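call fold(seq) -> tokens
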Amino acid sequence: MLTVVLDDCGLGDAEVTMQTRFTEDLGLESIDLVTLAGQLRERWGDRINFAEFVAGMELDEIIGLTVGRLVEYVVDRLQPGQRA
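ret:
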């Protein structure tokens, strides 16, 4: 899903690791994160709610959001027993 967003932004060849920051390293803007959030929701429905995920964060946490932190959230929400 991230590859699609990066391709749309012309960053298809960017190296992405768990420590890669969406804003600072990839230069993604909020609209790009909204696109990614839509893809996550389309794939997994209400179990993955990006808006809810970032709602409890401070602005500097959102700006510094890493791929790894988002992956951890997704994995946690997809565990059996997690409610949507």
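The two ends are 20 Å apart (CA to CA).
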